[in-house]
What we know:
This protein has about 300 residues and is α/β, with parallel strands linked by helices. The chain has 2 domains: about 5-225, Alpha-Beta Complex (Spore Coat Polysaccharide Biosynthesis Protein SpsA, Chain A); about 230-305, no CATH class. It has 11 helices and 11 strands.
Amino acid sequence: MNILISVVICTHNRSQYLAKAIQSLLNQQFPLENYEIIIIDNCSTDQTKEVVEQLAGKNLRYIYEPTLGLSYARNTGWKNAQGKYVAYLDDDAIACPLWLSTILEVFETVQPQPGCVGGKAEPIWEAPRPNWLSDELVTGLTVIDWSPTPQVLPDLSRQWLVGANIAFPKAVLEKLGGFIDGLDRSGKHLLSGGDVFLEKQIAQAGYSCYYHPQMAVSHHIQQSRLDKKWFIRRYFWQGVSDAVVQLIEESPSRSKRLFLAILRTINLLLVPSQITSFLYNSDDKNQFTERCFTLIKLGHIAGLLGLAHKPS
């Protein structure tokens, strides 16, 4: 077998979705002998292993990762990959039939070769989309559609690739050390941003991050996430995640963290509309969006004051 692409699915107690994700990979318009599927079982207690065993084939492998946390599972995946390229698909996502072909086309034809490539992630709504859910907040559900044409992403703070649908040359992952351990989801903790942080490292190393809309996946949006309380937690923890990234990049002293938190608090108080949006529960999508963006700032402050810890 000439393995060109290793596809990694990291999973934690999502056996009800996992079979559909794997089947979408088995249905690729791509030679079976040129790719492998690696399932990283991250401390699941459901029927995950049985689901994999039912679909077992020559190009499907199962690995149990005992340390809970998405970044640990992702790193276990690429370190065990045999392919030249490593692609990540979420356990509740479905890859389009040309997914692997598009990944290979980009890495083999775009010059200079990108450091990562990703594509469109479309929602599979498991309940009606709420009226208060704006397009700006939908990206928090791992839904993106940046452009109908392939392109290099020039500003990762405005447009980024999602970990549910992303691929790298394995050599780039080896060079940069992969994902930062501890900087991402772990059980019920909603830390996030490990994928975007790696994308920024890739850009700093001189590579491009490339978007191709034909590298498309569909992504289940569970009913439990279409709730204001989930979004409030999600965006507060986005702020905490931003604080973790700041600790990684700057390693500020305890006094500097306090100073930065005070400065951010003052800046927040100087914009009354942000405080108003936080205090009032409104179904207006613009007001709820501003409330969530205010929660990012509050989460960042809370992170600087002690809720965030630099990964060891």
